[in-house]
C-alpha cells in the first residue's frame, strides 16, 4: 500500500521538509518539496516531520491496511527570522555537481538545505572521486564560469523569496589553511588553488616538505574575489592524528590574512556546537583591536549520509533578499551563529557590527532577547565583555528579554551568548565600542631593505607592485606598503622580488602550526589549538616595521 505524506506551512502551502519514517530494520529519512510517497506493507508506522529547528516537529502514528493513506501535516513556526530581518546561510559545503550522483547534485542538495530552513546556500566544491579526477587536469576544466554552466539549474531552483542557490567554493586548500569564498564568479577548475603536492605527503611525511607551487592564500583571494564577495577562514583550529602523523587544516596564516585584508570573517561555530578553541581565537583577535565578523559553517558533504553538521547556521541582517545584500551584511559583522536558538543583541539600539564611541559618564543600554528552538527551552544567557563573561542569567524559558546597563569608557566590544538545555548554542557578533581605529583597517608596513652585492652595499632601482615609476636607492630602501604588496629590486639588470609573506620568522610561526610543533607534549587533542600559538601580536609586530636583507 502507499502512504502519501503532504506537509504544509501555516499558510497551507506545501513546504520543504525532512521526513523520518520508522521501519522494522532502521528509520528511513528523506527530504522533499512537501510531498512524498512511500510504498509500505500493512502495519503501524511512526512518521516524524522536521524543518530545521525553528519549526515544531510533527510526530504521527499511522496504520497502513488494505487502502492507500494520505497523511496531511501542518508545521508551526516557532520564530519567523525573516520578520526579524535575519537570513540564514551556509557557504562551506561539498556538492559533487555530478550528473551520475543521486545525492550530490545541486538540485538534491538544495532540497536538503530548504528542508533544513536555510535561505541562502553557496554550494561548494566537489568531494567525490570521479569529479576530482575529471577536474584534476586544468586543461579539461573548460573556460565557462560555473554560474553560467549551471545557469539552468540555478534558474529552476531560485524561484522563491525564501531560498537562493549560488555556486561557492572552498577556494583555497593548502598547508597554510583553508578559505571559502562566497558570491563570486568562479572559473574552472574549482581546484586551482589546491596544494596537490601537500596532501599526499602530509599523510606519510616521507622526504622533505614539498615546494609550494600555487598562489599564496592572499594572492588567490585577491585575484578571485568580486566587490561583494566574502572570504572566510574555515575551521581555524582543525587538525587530527592519522597513523601517527599530524594532519592539519589549521588556519595557520590567520594573523597575516587579517592584516592583509584578504579574509572578511572567520568560522566560530562548526563541527561542535560550542567550539571553545574557535571562540578563544576569535576573542584573541577582537581583544587585539581587529574588526572580525564570526560565522558558522557546515562543511557538509552531500554525498554522505551524515547530517549532524547541518544544524550550524549563520543568520545575517540583510537589507534585501539578494546575494550582494547578504554578503555586505556578513562583512559588516551583522551576524549571529546558532545550532538552534535565536539570540538578538542591541547596544544603545544598535545591532551587531555597529561601532559606538566610549562614554565617560553615561552607561550603555544593552538589550538581549532569546527564542528557543524546537529541542529545548533557553537555559542560560551570557553577556560577554572583551571575551569574558561579564554577567550570566540562568533560566528555563521559551522566550526571554534581558536589559542591562553598563559603563564603558575604553575600547571594548560586547556580544551575547545563550545555551539551551539540549546543548544548543547561539552567539552574536560584537557591538564595538572604540575611539581608536581597528588595527586591520588600512594596515601598512614601514619596510626597510638592506641591499648588497658581493657583500657590499648595492645601488639600483625598486618599484612596488605594478608601479610604472622606478625609484633609485643606494644600499638601503624604505617604503610604506600594504603587506600584500610586492617590492621588486633591480641591481645591474638582475631582479629579486620581496614578499613579506615569505619572511623567515612568519614562516616559522606558520610551520609551528601546520606541522603541529605546538603540541609536541601531546597536551591537546584533535581540533584544539591554543589562541596564543597563532602569535597574532607577534605577526603584527613583525609586519609593522620589517627589516630585510637582500643579497645579489
How would you describe this protein?
This protein is α+β, with helices and mostly antiparallel strands. The chain has 4 domains: 2-77, Carboxypeptidase-like, regulatory domain (Immunoglobulin-like); 82-339, TIM Barrel (Alpha-Beta Barrel), CATH 3.20.20.140; 340-439, Immunoglobulin-like (Sandwich); 445-481 and 485-551, no CATH class. The protein is built from 11 helices and 40 strands. Strand 38 (486-491) and strand 39 (494-499) form a beta hairpin. The longest helix is centred in the middle third of the chain and has 12 residues, at 276-287. The mean pLDDT is 95.
Low-confidence stretches: none
* Count of individual helical segments: 11
Work out the count of structural domains: 4
Helix vs. strand class = alpha+beta
- In which range does the helix fraction lie? 10-25%
Average pLDDT over all residues: 95
Radius of gyration: 26 Å
Shape verdict: globular
Number of DSSP E strands: 40
Query: So what's the CATH class of the largest domain?
Result: Alpha Beta
Termini separation comes to: 83 Å
User: What's the architecture of the largest domain in CATH terms?
Assistant: Alpha-Beta Barrel
Strand content: 35-45%
Largest sheet: 11 strands, mixed
CATH fold-type name of the largest domain: TIM Barrel
CATH superfamily of the largest domain: Metal-dependent hydrolases
Question: Which keywords apply here?
Answer:
552 residues, Immunoglobulin-like, eleven-stranded mixed beta sheet
Amino acid at each position: 500500500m502507499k502512504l502519501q505524506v503532504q506537509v504544509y506551512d501555516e499558510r497551507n502551502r506545501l513546504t520543504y521538509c525532512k521526513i523520518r519514517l520508522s521501519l522494522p530494520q532502521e528509520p528511513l529519512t528523506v527530504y522533499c518539496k512537501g510531498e512524498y510517497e512511500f510504498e509500505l506493507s500493512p502495519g503501524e508506522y511512526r512518521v516524524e516531520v522536521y524543518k530545521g529547528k525553528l519549526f515544531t516537529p510533527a510526530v504521527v502514528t499511522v496504520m497502513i491496511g488494505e487502502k492507500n493513506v494520505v497523511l496531511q501535516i501542518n508545521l508551526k513556526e516557532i520564530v519567523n527570522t525573516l520578520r526579524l530581518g535575519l537570513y540564514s546561510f551556509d557557504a562551506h559545503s561539498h556538492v559533487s555537481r555530478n550528473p551520475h550522483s543521486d545525492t550530490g547534485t545541486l538540485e538534491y542538495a538544495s532540497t536538503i538545505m530548504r528542508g533544513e530552513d536555510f535561505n541562502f546556500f553557496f554550494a561548494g566544491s566537489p568531494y567525490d572521486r570521479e569529479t576530482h579526477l575529471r577536474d584534476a587536469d586544468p586543461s579539461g576544466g573548460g573556460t565557462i564560469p560555473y554560474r553560467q554552466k549551471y545557469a539552468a539549474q540555478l534558474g529552476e531552483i531560485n524561484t522563491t523569496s525564501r531560498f537562493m542557490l549560488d555556486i561557492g567554493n572552498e577556494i583555497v586548500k593548502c598547508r597554510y589553511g583553508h578559505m571559502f569564498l562566497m558570491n563570486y564568479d568562479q572559473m574552472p577548475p574549482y581546484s586551482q588553488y589546491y596544494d596537490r603536492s601537500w596532501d599526499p605527503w602530509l599523510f606519510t611525511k616521507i622526504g622533505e616538505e614539498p615546494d609550494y607551487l600555487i598562489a599564496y592564500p592572499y594572492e588567490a583571494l585577491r585575484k578571485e574575489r568580486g566587490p561583494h564577495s566574502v572570504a572566510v577562514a574555515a575551521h581555524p583550529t582543525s587538525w587530527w592524528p592519522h597513523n601517527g602523523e599530524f594532519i592539519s587544516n589549521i588556519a595557520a596564516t590567520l594573523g597575516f590574512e587579517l592584516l592583509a585584508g584578504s579574509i572578511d570573517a572567520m568560522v566560530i561555530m562548526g563541527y561542535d556546537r560550542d567550539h571553545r578553541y574557535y571562540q578563544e581565537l576569535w576573542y584573541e583577535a577582537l581583544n587585539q583591536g581587529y574588526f572580525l565578523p564570526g560565522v558558522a559553517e557546515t562543511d557538509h558533504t552531500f554525498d554522505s549520509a551524515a547530517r549532524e553538521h547541518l544544524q550550524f547556521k549563520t543568520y545575517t541582517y540583510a537589507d534585501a533578499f539578494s546575494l550582494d545584500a547578504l554578503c555586505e551584511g556578513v562583512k559588516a559583522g551583522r551576524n549571529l551563529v546558532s545550532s538552534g536558538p535565536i539570540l538578538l543583541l542591541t547596544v544603545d539600539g544598535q545591532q551587531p557590527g555597529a561601532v559606538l564611541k566610549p562614554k565617560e559618564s553615561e552607561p550603555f543600554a544593552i538589550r538581549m532577547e532569546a527564542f528557543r528552538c524546537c529541542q529545548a527551552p533557553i537555559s542560560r544567557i551570557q553577556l560577554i565583555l572583551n571575551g569574558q563573561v561579564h554577567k550570566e542569567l540562568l533560566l528555563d524559558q521559551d522566550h526571554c528579554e534581558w536589559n542591562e546597563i553598563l559603563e564603558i569608557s575604553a575600547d571594548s566590544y560586547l556580544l551575547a551568548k545563550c545555551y539551551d538545555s539540549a546543548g544548543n548554542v547561539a552567539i552574536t557578533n560584537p557591538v564595538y565600542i572604540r575611539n581608536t581605529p581597528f588595527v586591520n583597517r588600512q594596515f601598512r608596513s614601514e619596510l626597510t631593505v638592506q641591499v648588497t652585492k658581493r657583500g657590499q652595499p648595492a645601488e639600483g632601482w625598486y618599484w612596488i607592485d605594478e608601479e610604472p615609476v622606478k625609484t633609485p636607492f643606494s644600499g638601503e630602501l624604505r617604503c610604506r606598503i600594504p603587506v600584500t604588496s610586492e617590492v621588486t629590486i633591480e641591481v645591474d639588470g638582475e631582479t629579486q622580488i620581496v614578499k613579506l609573506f615569505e619572511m623567515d620568522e612568519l614562516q616559522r610561526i606558520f610551520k609551528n602550526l601546520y606541522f603541529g610543533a605546538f603540541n609536541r607534549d601531546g597536551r591537546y587533542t584533535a581540533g584544539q589549538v591554543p589562541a596564543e600559538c597563532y602569535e597574532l601580536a607577534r605577526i603584527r609586530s613583525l609586519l609593522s616595521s620589517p627589516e630585510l636583507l637582500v643579497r645579489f
